[in-house]
Design brief:
The complex is a heterodimer of chains A (502) and B (566).
Chain A: H1 4-22, H2 35-66, H3 84-113, E1 120-127, E2 130-134, E3 140-141, E4 144-147, E5 151-158, E6 163-167, E7 172-176, E8 182-187, E9 192-198, E10 210-216, H4 218-229, H5 242-252, E11 278-280, E12 286-288, H6 291-299, H7 318-321, H8 328-341, H9 362-366, H10 379-392, E13 417-419, E14 425-427, H11 430-438, H12 456-459, H13 468-479
Parallel strand pairs in A: 1-5, 4-10
Antiparallel strand pairs in A: 1-2, 2-3, 5-8, 6-7, 6-9, 9-10, 11-12, 13-14
Helix pairs in contact in A: 1-2, 2-3, 5-8, 10-13
Chain B: H1 8-13, H2 27-31, H3 36-64, H4 77-116, H5 124-148, H6 160-163, H7 168-195, H8 208-240, H9 253-287, H10 294-308, H11 323-351, H12 360-383, H13 385-391, H14 395-425, H15 431-457, H16 472-502, E1 544-547, E2 552-555
The chains are: A alpha+beta (502), B mainly alpha (566).
Chain lengths: 502, 566
Amino acid sequence: MGFTMPLMNMLNVVHLNCSRLLAFYWLPRDGSTTAPDIHDMWNFFYVVAIFFTVLVVGLMLFFMFRYRMSAKRQKADPSATHNTALELTWSGIPLIIVMVMFVVGFKGYMNIDTPPGNSIDIKVLAQQWFWTFTYPNGAVSKTLYLPLNRPVRFEMTSNDVLHGFWIPALSVQRDVVPGRIITTWVDATRLGTFHLQCSEYCGDGHSRMISPVIVESYSKYLADIKAAANLWVGADGKALPLPKVGEKLYNLKGCSSCHTVNGAPGTGPTWRNLAGSQVKLNGGGTVTANYAYLKHAIMNPDHLNVQGYAKGVMPDNYVEQLGGKGKYERKINAIIAYMNTISKHSNSASMPPAGATAPATSAPAAAAPPAGGVPKVAAAHVAAGKKVAMTVGCTACHSVNGTPSVCPTWQNLAGSKVKLKDGKTVVADYDFLRTMILQPGKINVAGATMQMPNMSAALVGPQYHGDQRLNDLIWYINSLSKRSNKASQPPQSSLHSTGGGK
Amino acid sequence: MSTTTATPEMAQAVAPVKNYLKQTTTIRSWIFTLDHKRIGVMYLIVSLLAFFVGGMLAEVIRTQLLTPSGLIFHGGGAAYRQYNQVFTLHGIIMVFMVLVPMTPAALGNFMLPLLLGAKDVAFPRLNLFSFYLYVAGAVLAILSTVLGAVDTGWTFYAPYSIDSGSYVVLMVAGIFLLGFSSIFTGLNFIVTIHKLRPRGMTWFRMPLFLWATYATAIIQVAATPVVGVTLLLLIVERVMGIGIFNSALGGDPVLFQHFFWFYSHPAVYIMILPAMGIVTEIITTFSHKTIFGYKFIAMSSLAIALIGFLVWGHHLFVNGQSAELDAIFSFLTFLVAVPSAVKVFNWLATMYKGAIDLKTPMLYALSFIVLFTIGGFTGVVLGALSTDVVLHDTYFVVAHFHYVMFGGAIIAFLGGLHYWWPKMTGRMYSEPWAKFVCALLFVAFNLTFFPQLVVGAHGMPRRYATYLPEYQPYMVASTIGAYLQMIAFLTMAGYLLHSLFRGAKAPENPWGGTTLEWTTSSPPPTENFIGAPEVDVPYDYSLVEYDAAIGSYIRKEPMPAVEQTH
């Protein structure tokens, strides 16, 4: 390999003069520590390619005119039909040249492939169709902040399909593969704002999957990621109002890649004037986009889809994406608060409830139902069930005060007679309610226009203590009905366990 | 021999024989034909129609990219999806319905038995069956497009192709059929070359187009089943939810890429090897000089076919495979450049001291040399590991494979189409118009794709419905080039159609070719040759001379007796 270096040096000198002459810009040279190597390699190939192209095309043009057929020249001159030595030579010379190219290219690649040991680690998450960067201090941002002259190692993965991490100005590219952790690194040597462009085709928003990349001094970088670290605090260190936090989340969590806020159509419905409005649903029916509906729509994106928008498009893991159990509710409230600031239909029912944890909205509170035949000992379970109904999103569809909606009201449901599609009538006892909730496809109620989603995972998943959440919910439904009776209530044994809602 | 073109003595001796076009003229005689020439013509018509559709889609793509925010599809996800469907369909049509079948199945079918001196291919029924498989595959592809166009890109990369809501299964089933059509064609050609060579046609007397076709057929038979299995696995994964390529189900998306390119890279040689074969035939004929280094050219075709099997991993340099694998694939990729270079040098040596007639086919062959050289060198830059990192998945790649596939395979096909047009149709085309279109196409091609090389080096990723404003000047230049290409192709369609109905009658041997197809009438009779064809050393230009009286080249000496041995 030793002989390649002088060759490279010589060719570099040749090329430097050539490129000054041509004044033609191909690849950037000064973006990162690896860029000069790649740039020089390119120049080497470029010179070789130009040389041989000129040789081949030059000979071709020369022969074309020198040996052109004419009245005087009707026949080819006699010449050899083959010459093994000559042919071996022109097989051997390209072989040597491409082998030099291979070695040079491979050496450069090993340098690119090996990150230095003392690097800063930034986690990169790609998903349709945005990038999220997580810094060592826990800060999360949609802008990639890079310190100047410090090696940064990227630990990348994808949430859905293939993506490509490509910053042309810094000469770094690597595909991001779902199910794998892919690493690459860069040591930026040029201040400025550049573009990270997704280079591996990933669907509708592929060409919009571009993030700003800011290369800045190390101290400025530290300040920026410190500010980005706290979702609830602004750059000035003061607590942000809830809608502002929601706006941050809108940009940070990828809502913005599908939902516009200016009324323009997108992959998902626009958020402009959404909160508080009447929303037409796929398959008919209308719901009011109140707080409960909006919350439900974020948590269960495949249910109650807005007319014209298919299910299966929006990710269904936003509970985890927003921090998981115990953390996501505040953030959903912030997002809904933000939606309300951009809607002319905003009203008290579409606003998040005052206080971070208070579950009661004004609507169900105003129509506080009679306790029916529910024993007093069940009061704690009724309260817990009400909380479950709010969390899971039942009240997005089912009214509790008798107001008609796309789904049956819960008022006076428990213990009442329910007509089925096949004409039979059954009593809404405990087993009926339980089946309806856990296996909604099994019973077909007359007049139902909407298929109810299966709620098993949200109610009796392994993380919840047995049937407690489900029973609390059914206690709550019973508390709304004056027909509630022993048969429609959960078994007495459920009263002995501690209140659910975990 | 037909009376119009045979030498006077022959005309008296043999009763006139109807050519393959006039033998029977019913529609039934075409759709159930077992004649390789008619099947070739049907392949030609369907693949030219596909080329027209694919070309118009390309014009839609180029029009969209006139402005950074998109001229046709703009505003959001649903609009971009339509753009994605357009470029996906452009790729699928051009690769699977144009490039793969066009030269091997259309020109190959027509010319292979004629160049070989055979009556037909070895399995005429299989030949017809493979044509209808091709049609069936195309119909399924159209059906999937009508029902819900595919937006996965022609590469069907998982897991997007598993997630995508479009009719991927139907499209993939169509391509599966197209693949089988290609396998049967390859099989047929291999057996034909092995078994149907006439007396005297030894392996090293075969015209070089046949060597190229033979190498191509090996790839078709050996590599195509892999893509068939891969696409079946994709269907299994989509329909049954079995995790093979989707990491969410425990599969591996990179595995799909390995499988896919194990076929699709050799497929590049399915497209380019017959193209090189055509260029070889054209250059020796129009230089009126024996091909230089017959054996090197023949062997380089086989070398390209064999090494071409081992380079697929260069599509995955930045896709997360190990550095060791990267190095091996880079090494093999460089190796495959050598036999390609050998061919170019041998072509130049053939021109040396020749009597070069710059007719249209020759102009296409010379265009091929220029464009293929650029395509080859840009390929070398992509094959080198460190430069690939900054060029991968950019417009540089788009431009590179258009230089090879369009500047190489399509340009050579057009050369072959013009070269054999008189033989196939019995008519001459307008030489001035054809030369004008060839020159226009050369300029328009470079105007379209050279700016893409530059904008790719500047970082513009491929498959973008919208782009950063700084790339616009290059995109506009490229679009102007694409419009000029459209003008060139429409003009070509015009003069070729004119030639079909009004063109001058073609003589037996208008160019002075020495291979067997030029010893039979234009167009040939159904049986190809009257009596057994006389096989000699190929490319002996001392045997033919121009006869101004009939406007054709003729054999100098009277045909030797059939029984004569060599």
